[in-house]
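User: Please fill in residues for this 390-position structure.
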């Protein structure tokens, strides 16, 4: 979860989908970047019209959360392990409509979205709207630009009505003439126009002290490291559960199985492959580096498995881990370090078998992992004689 208290989040499981719900804890709107691959991103209380305006306003890959508002994002379980990062941030574009909402008394989200559209279309304000504020001085300039721009529009003859008509037309995808002629929009136009006429309330309500306090928090949040304002989820892939190595097996195959049982139970298609007197079942038709390789004894039963490079053990150790990490993960289990011409080996023994970690370097990183019978997991050469291993 994010370190900053700017937003809070919780993760739940909803019918097989992972959901992240993020809530805005600040008194101003917060922008949330929607990552690729999300199945849905539903913002509490925002209908499709509002979402369209906001997409056009801040970009299609972002949502805006008003104070206290939630967004729920959902992901279907990926086939592979996936890390997802959801970033939250303030921008001038999200702060402006938030101030307008509070100071103009707007509580209707459609009117607010329409006003946001109008503000973004306000000349200089549009240029500044998507900047991330770096200081209270920058925000002060943006807000002053907003007030000046809007004041010009609403103080001219009929300015408030004209601005409101333009904003409502944008919100509902109509032209100005249709909005003026259709009585359905009359109430919405009047409401927004009245709100715009109250812009003078900005100066009276938002005192210099209150403004400085709000902007100070924005600057603190905005200058915090991006990682502290991000939610990072590690989604387990549907295939990854089948790629866990234990002391006695991997991917549905266990030590002691017959060749046919291994072929039937394996989560990976296997084919038979011979090297000298030994028979292997492999995932590639050959004993390639980084592939899955299963050694059978002379009775045709599994005695050891070299797991593929994308596998991990039940303690999370994988190719690339250090020996120190492996020893820490299996603390309390008997371990043994050894070295020979083939490299450095770390053996961990457990119920029914062993796990061997192998590397050309004394400290790792782990380059291969073997599980099963102890002599196999330790890295002994079992196929040097004319007969298969017993």
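Assistant: Residues filled in for all 390 positions:
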């Amino acid at each position: 979860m994010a370190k900053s208290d700017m937003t809070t989040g919780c993760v739940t499981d909803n019918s097989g989908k992972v959901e992240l719900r993020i809530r805005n804890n600040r008194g101003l709107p917060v922008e949330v970047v929607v990552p690729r691959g999300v199945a849905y991103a539903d913002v509490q209380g925002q209908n499709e019209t509002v979402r369209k305006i906001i997409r056009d306003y801040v970009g299609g890959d972002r949502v805006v959360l008003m104070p206290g508002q939630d967004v729920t994002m959902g992901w279907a379980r990926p086939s592979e392990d996936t890390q997802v990062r959801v970033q939250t941030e303030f921008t001038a574009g999200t702060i402006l409509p938030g101030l307008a909402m509070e100071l103009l008394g707007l509580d209707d989200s459609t009117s607010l979205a329409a006003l946001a559209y109008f503000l973004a279309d306000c000349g200089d304000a549009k240029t500044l709207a998507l900047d991330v504020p770096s200081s209270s001085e920058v925000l002060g300039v943006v807000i002053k630009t907003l007030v000046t721009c809007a004041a010009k529009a609403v103080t001219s003859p009929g300015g408030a009505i004209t601005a409101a008509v333009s904003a409502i037309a944008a919100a509902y995808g109509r032209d100005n003439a249709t909005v003026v002629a259709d009585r359905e929009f009359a109430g919405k136009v009047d409401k927004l126009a009245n709100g715009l006429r109250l812009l003078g309330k900005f100066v009276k309500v938002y005192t210099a002290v209150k403004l400085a306090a709000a902007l100070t928090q924005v600057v603190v949040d905005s200058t915090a490291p991006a990682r502290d304002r991000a939610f990072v989820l590690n989604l387990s892939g549907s295939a990854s559960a089948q790629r866990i190595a234990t002391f006695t097996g991997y991917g549905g195959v266990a030590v002691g199985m017959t060749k046919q049982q291994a072929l039937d139970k394996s989560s990976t298609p296997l084919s038979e492959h011979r090297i000298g007197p030994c028979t292997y079942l492999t995932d590639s038709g050959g004993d390639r580096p980084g592939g899955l390789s299963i050694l059978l004894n002379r009775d045709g039963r599994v005695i050891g498995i070299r797991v593929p490079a994308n596998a991990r053990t039940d303690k999370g150790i994988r190719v690339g881990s250090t020996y120190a990490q492996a020893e820490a993960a299996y603390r309390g289990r008997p371990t043994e370090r050894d070295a020979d011409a083939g490299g450095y080996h770390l053996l961990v023994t457990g119920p029914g078998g062993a796990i061997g970690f192998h590397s050309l370097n004394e400290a790792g990183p782990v380059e291969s992992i073997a599980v099963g019978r102890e002599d196999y997991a330790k890295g002994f050469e079992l196929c040097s004689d004319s007969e298969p291993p017993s």
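For context: Residues 7 and 216 are 17 Å apart (CA to CA).
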